Amino acid sequence: APLKLKTFLDSRDKDKPFFLQISFRAPKDPWSDYPLEVKDYYKADSIPVSPTANLENAMLQPEFLQKSMAADHARRLLSTKGLLENEIRKHYRLVTGIDIAIGRLRKILADAGVDDNTIIVFSSDNGAFLGEHGFWGKWLPYEESIRVPLVIYDPRAPSEKRGITVD
What we know:
Structural class: mainly alpha
Helix content: 25-40%
Low-confidence stretches: none
Strand order of the largest sheet: 1-4
Number of strands: 4
Mean pLDDT: 92
Number of helices: 6
Distance between the termini: 33 Å
């Protein structure tokens, strides 16, 4: 992908603005498909688990949901000590892989001399359950599943407009 981006930037009409969309597959199955350079990341870290990620909360869900939506997988993760934390570590490694890729893309933009005039918008299609409410996946309208990131980087923005977080 970096070579394709460089080719795109080199071959475009430099007198015109450009739009380029790049999509990432991660963080999705297979959970072990993270870059090798991050394989040891988060191994020694204590992984916080949501207070709703427990079997008691899982069993409070409607019966039809307990039989669907990867709930059986989540209950298995919740019932085996350390298993959920290990799956979350894999999720974090996949997200870290995206972060590394974005860093590489930003370097290519800088090398092409367009980094000071290029807006980068980052978002995702969904949030993800990491055991919360006894679920694994992204299908239900709970806060954890519908919360998505939106990061807008505009190098031209005045300093007082940078780093703002909006809930």
